[in-house]
TrEMBL record:
Its EC number is 4.2.3.4. This is 3-dehydroquinate synthase. It comes from Novosphingobium mathurense. It is an enzyme of class 4 (lyase). Its cofactor is Zn(2+); NAD(+); Co(2+). It is found in: Cytoplasm. Residues 182-331 form the 3-dehydroquinate synthase C-terminal domain. Residues 69-179 form the 3-dehydroquinate synthase N-terminal domain. Pathway: Metabolic intermediate biosynthesis; chorismate biosynthesis; chorismate from D-erythrose 4-phosphate and phosphoenolpyruvate: step 2/7. Keywords: Amino-acid biosynthesis, Aromatic amino acid biosynthesis, Cobalt, Cytoplasm, Lyase, Metal-binding, NAD, Nucleotide-binding, Zinc. Binds 1 divalent metal cation per subunit. Can use either Co(2+) or Zn(2+).
Length: 371
C-alpha cells in the first residue's frame, strides 16, 4: 500500500492507495467513525458491486451503515440531489465532527463533498473513490460542486476531505470505458509539468489500463502526489498555479455542456479531447511544434480515447462552443485565460487568447477529416 501525505495550508490528510481497502474500510478510517451510525452516499452501480463488502466491514466493527443510493451519472450533481441529500443527512442528525462517507466516482465525491461543506457550515467527510478518475484526481484537493443548466461545477465549495481511501480492487468492476476516461486525467499530469511521466504513460499506459496492478498503483500514487503538490501551492486557484490542473477542461467542459452532460461524452473523454485541442491550438499559435501536438493526439487516440473533434459528429459551430466557455470559472474581467502548451510538460496559463480566434480554430477542427 502507498500512503501519500497531503498538507493543504496546515490541514494534513492521508491518501491511502492499495488493494482490499474496502474490505478493511473501518480499520483504515483510523478511528474517524466515532458513532455507531455511519452515513454513506453512493450510486446504484457502486452499491451493487461493493455495497455488501462495505456493509460487512461496518457491521463487523459495530457500526450501523445508513445508505443513500443515488442514480449513476453526471445529472446526479444537481440542486435536487444536493437538497435531498442534505435533508437526509439532517434527518440522521449528523454532527459537524461526524464523517460522511462518499463511496463512488467523481460524481458522488463532488456531490457528497459539497453536502459536507454546507451542512451545518461544514462537516467532515471521507472520500472512498471507486473509479480511476476519482482515485487519481477528484477525491484529492477539495473541489466540490454541482452542475447547473448554465454549465459545469458552477455551484460549489473548496472543502478538503479528512481522508482518502483508494481501493485498487474497486477498479476490477469498473467498465473499460470508465477506466479510459480516468486515464485521461493521468496523462494530464504528464502534459502539465512532467514530460518523464508522459513518457511513462507512452510506455505503460495501455498495460495499466488493461489491468497491471503494480502499474495501476504507481499511476494512482504518482498522480495523487502530483495533484497534492499543486493544490498545496494554491488551494483556492487564485495564483494560476492550480489552474494548471484545468488543462483540457475549458474545451472539455464546453463539449460536456454541448452534449448535455450525457453519456455521449464522459468527463474524462471530454478532457482527453480537450487536451488534444489545447495542444493543437498551441501548435497553431506557434508555441510548440505540430509534431508534439500530433504526439499527444496519437497517444490519446491509440489508447482508445477521443482525439478528434470532427469524429464526435457535433451539430454546432465554434462560436457555440465558445459561448459555453463564457461560464468558465477562470473568466477574469471578461477575458478567459487558457491553458496552453510550450511543449509536452510545459503547460502555462495564457491570458492573451482571443475567443474569436478560438472559435475560428474550433470551426477548423469541427470540419477537419480525422487523421
Ligand atoms: N473535484 C475534482 O477535483 C474533480 C476532478 C475531476 C473530475 N471531477 C468530476 O468527477 C466526475 C466524473 O467522475 P467519474 O469519472 O468517476 O464518474 P462517475 O462518478 O459518474 O462514475 C463513472 C461510472 O462508473 C460507475 N462506477 C463507479 N465506480 C465503480 C466501480 N468500482 N465498479 C463499477 N462501476 C463503478 C458509476 O456508477 C458511474 O456509472 C465529473 O462530474 C467531474 O466533473 C471532479
Ligand atoms: O482540482 C482541480 O483544480 C481541477 O481542475 C481538477 C479537474 O480535473 C476537475 O475536473 C475540476 O473539477 C475542474 O474544476 P473547475 O473549477 O473547472 O470546475
Ligand atoms: Zn477533470
Amino acid at each position: 500500500m502507498a500512503v501519500i501525505p497531503v498538507n493543504i495550508a496546515g490541514r494534513p490528510y492521508e491518501v491511502r492507495v492499495g488493494a482490499g481497502l474496502l474490505a478493511e474500510l473501518v480499520p483504515h478510517c483510523r478511528g474517524k467513525l466515532r458513532k455507531r451510525d455511519v452515513p454513506i452516499v453512493t450510486d446504484a452501480n457502486v452499491h451493487a458491486a461493493w455495497g455488501d463488502v462495505v456493509e460487512a466491514s461496518l457491521r463487523d466493527n459495530g457500526h450501523e451503515p445508513h445508505w443513500r443510493i443515488l442514480p449513476p451519472g453526471e445529472h446526479t450533481k444537481s440542486w435536487d440531489e444536493l437538497a435531498a441529500t442534505v435533508n437526509w443527512l439532517l434527518s440522521l442528525e449528523v454532527e459537524r465532527g461526524d464523517h460522511i462517507i462518499a463511496l463512488g466516482g467523481g460524481v458522488i465525491g463532488d456531490l457528497t463533498g459539497f453536502c459536507a461543506a454546507v451542512l451545518k457550515r461544514g462537516c467532515k467527510f471521507i472520500q472512498v473513490p471507486t473509479t480511476l478518475l476519482s482515485q487519481v484526481d477528484s477525491s484529492v484537493g477539495g473541489k466540490t460542486a454541482i452542475n447547473t443548466p448554465a454549465g459545469k461545477n458552477l455551484v460549489g465549495a473548496f472543502h478538503q476531505p479528512s481522508l482518502v481511501l483508494a481501493d485498487l480492487s474497486a477498479l476490477e468492476t469498473l467498465p473499460t470505458r470508465e477506466l479510459l476516461a480516468g486515464y485521461a486525467e493521468v496523462v494530464k499530469y504528464g502534459l502539465i509539468n512532467d514530460a518523464d511521466f508522459f513518457a511513462w504513460c507512452d510506455t505503460n499506459g495501455a498495460k495499466m489500463v488493461a489491468g497491471d496492478s503494480a502499474l495501476r498503483e504507481y499511476a494512482v500514487a504518482h498522480s495523487v502526489a502530483a495533484k497534492a503538490r499543486i493544490v498545496a501551492e494554491d488551494e483556492f486557484e487564485t495564483t494560476g498555479r492550480r489552474a494548471l490542473l484545468n488543462l483540457g477542461h475549458t474545451f472539455g467542459h464546453a463539449l460536456e455542456a454541448e452534449t448535455g452532460f450525457s453519456n455521449r461524452l464522459l468527463h474524462g473523454e471530454a478532457v482527453a479531447l480537450g487536451m488534444v485541442l489545447a495542444a493543437r491550438y498551441s501548435a497553431r499559435k506557434g508555441l510548440m511544434p505540430m509534431a508534439s501536438a500530433d504526439h499527444v493526439a496519437q497517444h490519446i487516440g491509440e489508447v482508445g480515447l477521443p482525439a478528434s473533434l470532427s469524429a464526435l459528429g457535433l451539430d454546432c459551430n465554434g462560436a457555440a462552443l465558445v459561448k459555453h466557455m463564457l461560464h468558465d470559472k477562470k473568466m477574469d474581467a471578461g477575458t478567459l485565460p487558457f491553458l496552453l502548451m510550450k511543449g509536452i510538460g510545459k503547460t502555462y496559463l495564457d491570458k492573451q487568447v482571443s475567443l474569436e480566434d478560438v472559435a475560428d480554430f474550433l470551426d477548423g477542427e469541427l470540419a477537419r477529416t480525422p487523421a
